[in-house]
Design brief:
Helices cover 24% and strands 30% of the residues. It has 5 helices and 9 strands; from the N terminus they run αααβββββββββαα. It has 196 residues and is α+β, with helices and mostly antiparallel strands. It has a 5-stranded antiparallel sheet with strand order 3-2-9-8-7, covered by helices on one side. The termini are far apart.
């Protein structure tokens, strides 16, 4: 599940879980980038971005999507900082091309490299808190998630995106996707009261 961490721990040259699929530029030839882009919530998520026409990563973003996953937003960035529960810096990814993909299932941080990419993901249901910090000259998507019983905080520099309202719209989409279904929760609560 933590593709980037597994890749990093085992020193793999290709992302864990995608070795067979991410073997070149046409790694996911069966994925229709035009169709995925047409169904996206953002006009910044184009077939060219999904196909990696701008060489921001070693492989197309489509190589990292699950078969039933629909990307909704993508943001270009700079650094990705990850801190642990004690506030110490767990990982820092400077001067690599960062792309933050927000899909209907997860946040995917793709740090582009020349020979391989490093990936970190947060499934929507694992998002504890997410917001945009744009009070300084930089803009950061800040996402908190519990990973292996430890709180991890991701700071993704998305200053390259000129429209902070567009980023906020994407983060509201994540919040709505990570909230449990209120109807289902209400039904479960009523069932518990009935059992008492």
């Amino acid at each position: 599940m933590i593709l980037g961490l597994v890749s990093w721990l085992f020193g793999r040259s290709e992302p864990a879980g995608r070795v067979g699929k991410a073997s070149g530029k046409d790694a996911d030839a069966d994925v229709d980038a035009d169709e995925l882009a047409a169904q996206a919530r953002s006009d910044q998520l184009t077939p060219a971005v999904l196909s990696n026409d701008h060489d921001r990563s070693a492989y197309p973003l489509t190589a990292y999507l699950e078969a039933d996953e629909q990307p909704a937003y993508v943001f270009r960035g700079g650094d990705l900082l990850i801190s642990d529960a004690e506030g110490s810096l767990a990982r820092k990814h400077p001067s690599r091309e960062l792309q933050v993909v927000i899909s209907d299932q997860r946040l995917l941080f793709v740090m582009g490299g020349r020979r391989s990419d490093e990936l970190w993901e947060i499934p929507h249901e694992d998002v504890e808190e997410i917001y945009l910090d744009d009070e300084s000259t930089k803009q950061y998507i800040i996402a908190e998630s519990e990973r292996d019983d430890a709180l991890m905080t991701f700071f993704a520099d998305v200053t390259l995106n000129m429209n902070p309202e567009h980023v906020r719209e994407a983060l509201a989409f994540v919040e709505a996707s990570s909230d449990p279904d209120p109807v289902e929760e209400e039904t479960e609560s009523a069932d518990r009261r009935a059992d008492e």
